[in-house]
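Full entry
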Amino acid sequence: MSEEIFIQQLKQEYNQSSQKVPQPQTYPAESVFLPSKGFFYPEKSPLSKGTIDVKMMTAKEEDILTNENFIKSGTVLDRLLESLIVTPNVKVSDLLMVDKNALFIAARRLAYGDSYGPLKINCRKCGEENNTVVNLGEMNEKPVDFGNFEKGLNEFEFTFPYSKRKIIFKLLSSGDEDAIDKDSKALSKIKKNASAEVTTRLKRLIVELDGKRDQVLINNFVENELLSKDSMALRAYIRTISPEIDMGFNFTCEHCSNSERMDVPMTVQFFWPES
């Protein structure tokens, strides 16, 4: 059989299969509780229910994790979530980051269990390498009083302690993070060796300044008027109100007994255990 005839047969088989009526898929899935409890999503959003159904990883998802184009573009983990989420009408870009991280943890536990490691971690004190295993089952949600918030609204008031300027800010979504990353990369091309990640993030966070929803006004404030003390105070306040999974674990060096809190690395390797 010539190569040309073989290719024609493949095309014919593909066209025939694409015309078939898709059959309902069956796969093991689990309902995952979102740290936000769906509180900050619009009422019509499927995410407002506070849960999302995620299926177990299959060979299809392993193909996604090894896709060189996805890895190079930095979209591989988002593609993975798109494939794993089975709740209808959910877009990864709509997920708040506090919920997205929780889904990564849930997906990893469904696929391989609670044990993550051994991780090769260099002690910050003595520099020696450690083989550390993290128990993902021990990660808990940070306690948050939802009684302080209005359901269905992703907006929060804050007054800067030093300048006394009043703002309304939001919790960032996955789509916001993508936009921040693109804006930061674009600015770095214009200004070589310059980083604008902090200001770019603040411009996305703040939606109102002194009662005005003017993006030009907000951008100018962030770039030229926002004090470092106020910026730090805002970030600290956001951490106190953000419902999220605590991504940290207690690390103790096996060589010098140095103990400290570290964050679990969230990379493609998170979904590729060594054994």
